[in-house]
Amino acid sequence: MANSGSQVSGVAERYANSLFELALESKSVEKIEKDLARFEALLDGSTDLQRLIRSPVFSADDQLKAISKISDKANITGIVGNFLRVVARNRRLFAVPAMIRNFRARAAQNRGEVAADVISAHDMTAEQIKTLGAALKGVAGKDVAMNITVDPSLLGGMIVKIGSRQIDTSLKTKLNSLRLALKEVG
């Protein structure tokens, strides 16, 4: 099963690299990044769409038709719309979230930034985002492009991933560590 994650990672990286090369050629990296973010927001907001991309029950034709309609309705056209259709036709929709992360990382690297995934327990204010960005810039030594998501199950705090480093200050993790420590004592 551990191999499965690396397969998704490899597929996602190859597709993201191809999309990034197209973005560079067409000088539309920023537009493609925005379209991918819009699709990611749709995905995050819909359990039905998540089920569509993850479930092997749907045929390639069903996925292609659904993705085409969703893309058209969300006005995700051009390179990203075509990209999503190719991914659906090739039965690789399950890897779209990882493709988006990989594309975002490549775009950030191209701008001389480092990409950071931030998972927060609550919505952050603009001031908190600015402060976090400055702190991460100090750690990374360069500008940081943050991808911020909210996961209320963390209860409090956040998880920050920059490259291979992860900083976990979530209350959920602290409570789990405390629970394990108490089990060892008792």
Average pLDDT over all residues? 91
What is the CATH architecture descriptor of the largest domain?
A: Orthogonal Bundle
Fourth-tier CATH superfamily name of the largest domain: N-terminal domain of the delta subunit of the F1F0-ATP synthase
**Subunit organisation of the chains:** single chain
Tally of DSSP helical segments: 8
CA-based shape: globular
Element-by-element helix/strand order: HHHHHHEHEEEH
- From the helix content, strand content and strand pairing, which structural class follows? alpha+beta
Number of domains: 2
CATH topology description of the largest domain: Peroxidase, domain 1
Strand order of the largest sheet: 2-1-3-4
Roughly how many Å apart are the termini? 34 Å
**Percentage beta strand:** 5-15%
What CATH first level of the largest domain would be assigned? Answer: Mainly Alpha
What's the total number of strands? Answer: 4
Specify Rg, calculated over alpha carbons. Answer: 18 Å
Fraction of residues in H or I helices: 55-70%
The unreliable regions are: none
Q: Tell me about the largest β-sheet.
A: 4 strands, mixed
